[in-house]
Design goal:
Six copies of one chain form a homohexamer. Chain A is of the alpha/beta class. The first copy, chain A, contains eight helices and twelve strands. In chain A, the strands form two sheets. In chain A, strands 2, 3, 4, 5, 6, 7, 10 and 11 form an eight-stranded mixed sheet that branches. Chain A is elongated and about 70 Å long. Chains in contact: A-B, A-C, A-D, A-E, B-C, B-E, B-F, C-D, C-F, D-E, D-F, E-F.
């Protein structure tokens, strides 16, 4: 029974905004190395970095009708997350839909399928992460669902989850953990800054992280080349 | 029996030139969603957009001899379309062949195999769409055909067909339909411009395309989140 | 028995430096079309071109501990070459390790696995060729080897071999052949320059390379189109 | 925080057993075309057909320690479902683990990674669906989770869900829908049996499903060949 | 404009039947190493070997409606050849459609997409070559074409072409060349039988094919191991 | 400079024969989890298990000339190992070459490319492990090398190395370690037999391998389901 769920609550915009300084790798580590989409999800152009609240769309292969339906459910600060019910490389999305999403304040698109009009998307600077680039057109014949949980690129996404995307890929933070993960990001970033300074100064990670003893205990041996 | 077919007629250069304003997605839609090469055909550098008349080359795996043969059959405004007789990621084409094609006025290369010297190709701005990038060298030992019909990246190409390529990929328009497809492109573009303006102004696709009734008729339901 | 081999001799830095003018395609051809890594090895950003002496690291899937160990064995002018013992797309390497390698004068990284922090790597201009881009974190639990021979992306690499990488991919020159291959590069480049000039002036490869007779002898036929 | 959840309730064994007559295609259709794992999940030998209650295991790449932990949580009638936290083709599972699972009454294994000893598994007739076959060994160094929800081959699996697997692949029925889906299977099978008889007798699907009118309404045209 | 072309002429059944003794490799060689579908086309069960006249069906991704339409156009001795307009791994075909095709005397199915019910297909011994096995259901919403030329697995197929399929894959012989190719098959098979006897008796291919001189002329050298 | 190295010494046939009882997984573990070819190397038919001494052949893409050359260098007990210089799925090998190899006592073929005539190979029970099955023909135009070291499916193979292959894939034991690895196989097999008996009797791996303490020390926690 195809359904569109309306009026999904978003979490506090300040929490979502709090993630803006952090890249995908930091967020993924901070929440315990989970929530990362498969690495075949690539940005259409480099250098974008977005954070937003997920609106989810489940679409049939080769049919983008439900994306048009989903646009109406979007608010400023949202990210559209689209997954086909079976793998498909068709171009579900192009510059017209991007124009429409931008008009509603949507921050970007994450889609485990194809997109097209990438020169236009690049000129508009509308951020898109997709599995494929393809001009192949889609039909508008079969329904799907909006704002139900779905699996996108191997990761479970619930509507309202926090989506972070940059050149490393796409990470999803369950909304109920957003506060905790945000704090973990801040604390991780602080530690990394200190480590970065020491490494830049020429210290070795072996010493910064005090690994030498554990390595020896695990049986690592050193020998000189006999050349 | 390997053969080179000479003096293939090209269609009217004004018709071919007429396609220049239109991207691959527009042309593909305008001719009824056919003629698109597989999406693994990617540009060597972004931002190129070419239109031209196909010169076709069928090559053995790992052997680029026939590309040298084909150069002689090229005229200004042509696009070279190369397909191996079985899949191959070797680097069939580099800056020397690009220099030679440019000297003959060829607009670009489409090859379902590998190319190399991509830094040089990028600096020359010689447009190439390929399946692979690889420096792997090829031999010159076995013959193939020039200007016979072939299948390239899943699409039938006849010599003289119109080839359009941009960052979305590569589309082929059979020469006998070029006039009709060109008109369809023009008409489609006009309609899209009007739609784009309405979407940019905040109207929904649901309304612009009057989809609400059909969606309801197909059984789409709406409910509010219970959170 | 995991081992780190120290004090591997590097070959004369002037020989290594001699390769700097030559791209991967030239070097690969000059040494007889061998030594090229598989074409799935792609640069994280375009336009880099490095030459250096290989420090090799064998790592378990999902475990980057040995990269930290390997940093200590690096000298200015080295290139780190990392291969997992079974295929893995995890992000083994990011901006902290890049900071550390740069502090030691390492010229770049070649890794048949994933890397992350690619926006930071791009800003730092630290050159990386990898099989994947992924933020997926790794553990530090299992040992591997440093400076033993390994197979990376289908190519045998011995510690101290010369590694050349550019936008075409990655090529490895065995250290014992470096002198000979370097000379072959210089001679090849000279010949190509002359050919390039002739092709740019409109001469055909068929004539420059005097192919017409051999083609005819092999049975190539020409016929005019009957359109 | 790695955790093993014990004493997960299983649903009524008679409900699970009720699925035994139905293949994966039937169950997948009966629950509305959802719940199917990706088609890269293939049986190690043909002809197996199992139904059971899922025990889930999340494992690091290249590390099968948690499978040993999970065995203790298995009961007769269970199916072990294993997913790595990032893609891995290592051989996590072989004849020793199969011996252990069989001793506990486990009906089979579903794993989005590699398995080995396939000749022994085939002789034992221990059913396995996997993404890869590979002898590559794994370590026992890093923890994971048992009996938490996970995504396996693109499908969400909760511990206790019903798993159906045959030569078509693997389908998952959420335990809370098992009753309803089971009834839908029975009713679907009845309808199909009637249709099968009519088709075998030479009736056309066009007539059995009364498609002709709809096809015409959508614009399907017929013409005779002009040969 | 979706169309079904009726009453396509088949070539003489005796010519088609003449191919029955020959495997795909022989036919492919006999017609000059062309016409082979991509090797991802695999039989659902091993040991089948069919020859027939192609009925072609172009289908949208995830939509098998036109297969039902095509059944009506089939005659005894036909082979159904199905290609999606963009790549799709859905299960377009199962035991009901096989029952229907068998009732019409169709010899088998060739489909560049997925099929399901493979245990039933195997028991029925209904031969199928497909790109995927998947239970994923399809819809019946969008039209396609029957008996127009199409590209299937990289090969152009015209309705009425001769299709040969065995465990090596699928080969297509254009109907207008069927006579000539059939004779070439017979002559090739005779030669091979003689060669097979000589090789089985211990003669070397080097001598049977008198290759030694050419190899030497090309520069092949022999040296003894220095171990 | 293409070369054929003759009269490579084989190691003691009794050592090679000693490996016959052991599968690929056992040998791979016994030599420290190295030497395994990539898992895309699959047997043409199931149930074969061979051991032999490697004769190596390096071939150009789409050219099988050197296999004919290599046959002459084979002795009873050898295994032919073939790798293309760049990836190729052509059918390099069929029933004629198998007939020739069998006449010389060769035990099987390992090839990182395609093979054909698989129905004939299966009937002959000539064991083949390949990356692809394809009828695509090859030419005989370009030379390669016989009995030089090469990388096949990601693994370095020296002529004379011991090759073990079964349904799990292909493993290579360097000839100089064959004695040591053979002893390690025997000792491993003994230990596994004892473990197998205990597991079959219902003991848990957790206890057999005494893992409980280490798991607890690493932080594994247990909790009961709250359902």
């Amino acid at each position: 029974m195809p359904v569109v769920v309306r009026r999904r609550k978003r979490i506090d915009a300040r929490v979502i905004g709090g993630f803006q300084p952090f890249g995908v790798a930091t967020v993924h580590e901070a929440q315990g190395r989970v929530g990362l989409m498969a690495p075949f999800m690539r940005p259409v152009f480099n250098g974008a970095h977005i954070v937003g609240s997920a609106v989810t769309v489940s679409v049939p292969p080769g049919d983008n009708w439900m994306i048009h339906v989903a646009v109406e459910q979007c608010q400023p600060g949202d990210v559209l997350v689209v997954a086909p019910t079976s793998p498909c490389d068709c171009g579900y999305f192009g510059d017209l839909l991007a124009t429409s999403l931008r008009a509603r304040g949507v921050r970007g698109l994450v889609i485990e399928a194809g997109v097209r009009d990438v020169q236009a998307l690049t000129e508009m600077r509308f951020p898109v992460w997709s599995r494929h680039v393809s001009a192949q057109g889609t039909v508008k014949a079969t329904l799907g669902d909006v704002n139900l949980p779905l699996v996108c690129a191997g990761t479970l996404v619930n509507p309202g989850d926090v989506v972070i995307a940059d050149d490393d890929g796409v990470c999803v933070v369950p909304q109920e953990h957003a506060d905790v993960v945000l704090k973990a990001c801040e604390s991780r970033e602080k530690k990394e800054a200190a480590v970065r300074d020491r490494l830049a100064a020429g210290e070795l990670g072996l010493d910064v992280y005090t690994m030498r003893e554990t390595l020896a205990a695990r049986g690592l041996t050193y020998r000189d080349a006999e050349e």
